[in-house]
Amino acid sequence: MRADRVFAYGAAAGLLGDLLLGDPRRGHPVAAFGRAAGAVEKVAWRDHRGWGALHTAVCAGGAVALGAVAQRAVRPSRTASVALTAAATWAVVGGTSLAREARVIGRALQTGDVEGARERLPHLCGRDPQALDADGIARAVVESVAENTSDAVVGALVWGAVGGVPGLLGFRAVNTLDAMVGHRSPRFRRYGWASARLDDVAGWPGARLTAVLATVAGGDPRGAVRAWRADAAKHPSPNAGPVEASFAGALGVRLGGTLSYGGRVEHRPVLNGAGRTVAVHDIERAVRLSKRVSWLALGACVAARRIVKGRTS
């Protein structure tokens, strides 16, 4: 079976598996990778960029190598190749868990349980929940749904289309390392530099595809394009900017503004300033847009891989 068909069937099965099963509560492969990366960090940590780069190379390179060995081992069998791609896709994407957590918070807000929503918010993002009222929590959820549509689904599919199973595992490894050590805390300002920069590079294509598809699948294509062009570059993240701006325009809401991470207050530029304040019902609208974008991304990645394969064969 051709490699493009293996990816198409396997990625579709993996995405469907995520839709039906979600993430396991115990024994998730990404959690196992996180524990291994944490063990490497305990040995390698120095307040130095070079040691951080070594940590990134060992952990991300190990994930890519594992994927390459597994892919090569099953290559003689079409069924095993599709099954491996499906398992890898299911392991690295997280669209269903993203939607589930967003909806749990949305239901709490709908019933007026703001404190319950605050308690649940750390499961979705790193904001300081105590600093947020109901509208602030809803805005944080919509922003997290937008950003994680790229990080947890689309980016993985893009690299799966490019590199097969090694691409899938490598992207998730890089993204996980950024979440672990890529933030600007005193401990990781230097050590996490390489992970953060590599995550920016790896996330670039997926973020742009997410923004394009949000524009296509959202309710206001012109608004999405306008917000993307006007506001994306104002965001401190080169990848979250296009994604959040296009989601804001597509949903007709205003994102960005003041937020708090780990006791540190940030005043971010407003995205889609002409939009309205985020309301609780926009959480469900964002989740539905995320799902449409995810399946469109699968179609786009499969089509792109087939086109490339056809030109090179």
UniProtKB/TrEMBL annotation:
Coiled coil: none
Recorded topology in the membrane: Multi-pass membrane protein
Keyword rRNA processing: no
UniProt entry tagged with the keyword rRNA processing: no
Broad class of the protein's primary localization: membrane
Subcellular location: Cell membrane
Keywords in alphabetical order: Cell membrane, Cobalamin biosynthesis, Membrane, Transmembrane, Transmembrane helix
Superkingdom per UniProt: Bacteria
Pathway linked to the protein: Cofactor biosynthesis; adenosylcobalamin biosynthesis
InterPro entries noted in UniProt: Cobalamin_biosynth_CobD/CbiB
NCBIfam families noted in UniProt: cobal_cbiB, PRK01209.1-4
Homology family: Belongs to the CobD/CbiB family.
Function: Converts cobyric acid to cobinamide by the addition of aminopropanol on the F carboxylic group.
Protein name: Cobalamin biosynthesis protein CobD
